[in-house]
Amino acid sequence: MKIAIVGAGWSGLAAAVAATTAGHQVTVFEASRTPGGRARALPTTLPDGRPVLLDNGQHILIGAYTQTLAMLRLVGVDPQATLLRLPLTLQFPDGSGLELPWGRAPWDALRGIAHAKGWSWHDKLSLLGAAALWQWRGFTCGDELTVQQLCRSLTPKLMQTLIEPLCVSALNTPATSASARVFLRVLQDSLFATAGGSNLLLPRVDLSTLFPVAAAHWLMQRGVRVALGQRVASIQPCTAGWEIDKEAFGSVVLATGARHAAQLLGNSAAALPPALAEPLQRWRESALALQYEAITTVYAWEQGARLSMPMLALRSDAQHPAQFAFDRGQLGGPEGLMALVVSASVGERGALQRQVLAQAREQLGLNLQAVKTVTEKQATFACSTGLVRPAMEIAPGLRACGDYVDGPYPATLEGAVRSGHHAVS
Prior knowledge:
Blueprint: E1 2-6, H1 10-21, E2 25-30, E3 41-45, E4 51-55, E5 61-62, H2 66-74, H3 79-82, E6 83-86, E7 89-91, E8 97-99, H4 107-114, H5 121-136, H6 147-150, H7 156-171, H8 180-193, E9 200-203, H9 207-210, H10 212-221, E10 225-228, E11 235-238, E12 241-244, E13 247-249, E14 251-254, H11 258-269, H12 274-288, E15 292-301, E16 311-313, E17 324-327, E18 337-345, H13 349-364, E19 369-381, E20 393-395, E21 398-400, H14 413-423
Parallel strand pairs: 1-2, 1-14, 2-10, 14-21
Antiparallel strand pairs: 3-4, 5-9, 6-9, 7-8, 11-12, 12-13, 15-18, 15-19, 16-17, 17-18, 20-21
Helix pairs in contact: 1-10, 1-14, 2-14, 11-12
């Protein structure tokens, strides 16, 4: 089949690779001149004038991202060389918190909980009891339940030092409104399903190098047309399927963000017959109904600065908004470069940057200079209770893929890759 993929983010490239592997004739359209979407590299300079590649947001992968890891290997990227694998660690600068040992699930989690620093036996027993109950219930619950309600039996310390950091890092949504159903699925797949599923996989290379550039190169080597800098304005039905810029395709996959896909369909709907216009309009309405959470990453630098670990959890509140700090010097970047991440961020970028730098002085003892602050205002959809996500199928021969499309996972790289693969299968 002749397939058009509109968008060269992680989901679009995954779809293109999967379709090419299956023997289809593929064309990829991308409005930007660089692939990667919301997970790509950004060039800038350090305060001392050295050039450096940052990312448009610090990302974490985990061992349970089986489809992403398989896709990396398929396009020639070695996960062992490009990702630093560590046991799941949610430790704070004072050494308190959870650190899982190497081992098989779920015994690594049980041993990590038993030896967690700064938790009383009351804390640990309440967590073990809750985890046993979740497992007995098959890691399922009602759609209306929030993470905070799910965890109401846990102690305040566990909420502050484990559940809230886990929830905001996995779902980018505060525990007070985040979907407990999705949270439980993440816990099941990461902590209890497969050996190494909970392991942290921290990129040692920029995000463009990690997958998009390699995937685009792999596709072009196999004769796929990757049309960078070519924006698709509308799509129209034709005898063969769908037409893009007067070129006919048997199938089209929209791999843009939800709002861009809805806008593209809106541009096309006026000329469509009612039988096609009505399902397109229903899909547009579901896509436009999504709410979003922002993520702010403050990149900052101090000569010779170093964290005790490549990634540390931070104590977060309204005045101290960052939840995590990453030592990019320990992840293949220049020494002294830090990434401080504010998930579900609110407020003006400059104010956030000042708060985060002050937080770094207070909690990390670092006097950092700002390098670049990146705010992705629509970084992820709000993974809240009762969420209805757009379906993958829009109309015959027309599908959508992306981390926002209906599926079991929150807005993650794994969700994007799985969606892209499924859209062409």
